[in-house]
Amino acid sequence: MKACGVSGADKEVALLELPEPSSPGPGQILVGVEAAGVGPWDGLPIDASWDVGLRPPAALGVEGAGKVLAVGAGVTGFAVGDRVLAHEAPLPGGSGFWAERVLINADHTAACPPGLDAVHAAALPVNGLTALQALEKLGLSPGQRLLITNGAGATGALAIQLAAAQGIEVTATASAAAAERLLGLGATEVVDYHDPNWPAKVRGGFDAALIIAAGTAAPALPLVRDGGRLCSLTSDAPEEERGITSGDLYIEPNAAQLAQLAEQAAAGTLKLAPEPLPLSEGPAAFARVVTGGAGGKKIVLTPA
Fold first, then answer.
1. Are 45 and 54 in contact (CB under 8 A)?
2. What's the pLDDT tens digit per position in 190-234?
3. Any signal peptide, and if so, which residues (predicted)?
């Protein structure tokens, strides 16, 4: 089958021809991939920074959407032909979603609701689950204030929408060009991160900070009130001080949360901005994403 991934020790992302996945074992399903998300995290399994069970030669990709082709023993929630989406890590078949077919665990998989096409579904799992799990960790209530750094990225834009829907007042850092879009998604204020003095341009006393831009945890911490919370997605949470709870977050697959997000996206209450590209452009798409060249767009690979 056609795929995009790594062949071995050279760790170069390239187009590949891979063997078909094995038949699904107990609790597993085989999915015909219709779209697969690309994110900066896809570079981590290559250098072993994130062990997702990749076994080269293998396709990359830990999220996607498609149709069920076969089900293993004990799987009762899905049948052949069902449309699904998933974030999967580790990969039970040793190979990922950037391929025509992928083997995944049924209990990490959500049904894809009518009205949500494969490209938008594939854009949702990692960024959506990250935003949702971060907000749950911060535990904010309606009326409280949240600072989000890199609000214009795929995770930040979803976090803004989810927080605003809960009645949380969101201030986001982003480029000036993204300000109008983020205000439309529910942000109360957008501050230009290009200004090196941006922390002085916002009113402090935030109840929490969600750190999505690397290097912003330290300048954000003084803006959080005593006893507040800070959650970093960039593995650089500062030491706790002034009673502030500070920690890093690492996403976990969660089918129930993903189903909730998919329903919101299908209903149009959660807006996504995917950029579909053919699988044949996978190596170039990966390079764009890991070097920050996606411009806030979520790149999604399609087999065609």
1. yes
2. 999 999 999 999 999 999 999 999 999 999 999 999 999 999 999
3. none
Q: 274 has which bridge partners?
A: 298
Task: Please give the radius of gyration of the chain, using alpha carbons only, rounded to the nearest integer.
Answer: 19
Please tell me the pTM assigned to this model. Answer: 0.96
What amino acid occupies position 152?
Answer: A
For residues 240 and 126, give the distance between their C-alpha atoms in angstroms, rounded to a whole number. 27
Count the neighbouring beta carbons within 10 Å of the beta carbon of residue 149.
Answer: 27
Give the position of tokens 């890991």. Answer: 290
* Residue corresponding to tokens 């977050």: 249
CA distance 42 to 52: 10
Under 8 Å between Cβ of 62 and 99: no
List pLDDT tens digits, range 100-119: 999 999 999 999 999 999 99
**Closest among 217, 173, 212 to 195, alpha carbons compared:** 173
| H or E element that contains 171 | strand 169-174
